[in-house]
Amino acid sequence: MRIVIAEDDPLLREGLALLLRAESLDVVATAEDPATFLAAVDEHKPDVAIVDVRMPPTHTDEGIVAAVEARRRLPGLAVLVLSAYVEQAFATDLLAGGAAGLGYLLKERVGRVEEFLEALHRVADGGTAIDPEVVGLLLARNRPDDALARLSPREHDVLALMAEGLGNTAIAEKLVVTEGAVHKHIRSIFAKLDLAPDDRADRRVIAVLRYLRK
């Protein structure tokens, strides 16, 4: 796995690089600003980019903008975004173009090495990794629509774990139920959200977006 890190905090940037190299992962470049990051993406063609949301010069959304541009330049690039706080607009914007190969974690999660590495590998494999605290805070801030209000408490639990990027097996383990039960809950969620099978769209992604949006 070839990785580029974009983080303006030198301690966190170098700490991430040391952590990943200790796990025998190939950190091909680090960058402290969007321009250097995009140049590294062009040069090294990484598999994954780890990107801070807030970067110079204004420390607002430069990281998100750079991540979107990096994926335009290198289709298929997996991106794991790190943020010190829950940035509601940035989280939903990041997912709006499709959730495959994308992750959004709070920086404090990096200290939980096993969880951080699991999220990194999930994103690199084309999955989704959303910090459970991000999911919880976004859900608390957003009013559910009428369809979401029809979900049972257990279906809400299943959908929240789907939003974290977990598959059916992992959801079953978290909730201590069978995979068959999880499958039934997901089918019920799709039915209550009026999500019919469609080759053009991933119903899991649409359900998660419905959950995160206002």
TrEMBL record:
Keywords, sorted A to Z: DNA-binding, Phosphoprotein, Transcription, Transcription regulation
Pfam families: GerE, Response_reg
This protein's name: Response regulator transcription factor
Annotated InterPro entries: CheY-like_superfamily, Sig_transdc_resp-reg_receiver, Tscrpt_reg_LuxR_C, WalR-like, WH-like_DNA-bd_sf
Residues with the 4-aspartylphosphate modification: 52
Domain of life assignment: Bacteria
Classification via SUPFAM superfamilies: CheY-like
Species this chain originates from: Paractinoplanes hotanensis
Record-annotated Response regulatory domain positions: 2-122
HTH luxR-type domain ranges (all copies): 144-214
PROSITE patterns linked to this entry: HTH_LUXR_2, RESPONSE_REGULATORY
